[in-house]
Amino acid sequence: MSLLAILQSFLLIAGALMFCIGSLGLIRFPDTYTRIHALTKADNLGLGLIVLALILNVESVALALKLLLIWGLVMIASALSGHLVAWEADEQCIPLCQPSETERHLESEDE
Hints:
GO terms for molecular function: sodium:proton antiporter activity. It comes from Nitrincola nitratireducens. InterPro entries: PhaG_MnhG_YufB (IPR005133). Keywords: Membrane, Transmembrane, Transmembrane helix. It contains four helices and no strands. It is mainly α. The chain has one domain. The longest helix is centred in the C-terminal third of the chain and has 31 residues.
């Protein structure tokens, strides 16, 4: 395997792992706002890594620019949709998750 193929494999695997981590955050985090944050950040980074891996293998600048354009549009759409979901959650008065007694106790020990 060439160094380029190894780098592409690493970037593709890292991108896929970021998608998995974002999905895990969607399941594990306690409230709507942290779920949105985990999903949008991890998915944008995962897609960026995958696009970078694909750009390393393109033969024309036009195709590389198209891939970057797709990534940019997805980032804009992700930010807007995350903002709209958070705005609607705020409008419906969905509360933030409050720290548990254990977390409050740990915070008081740190001070």
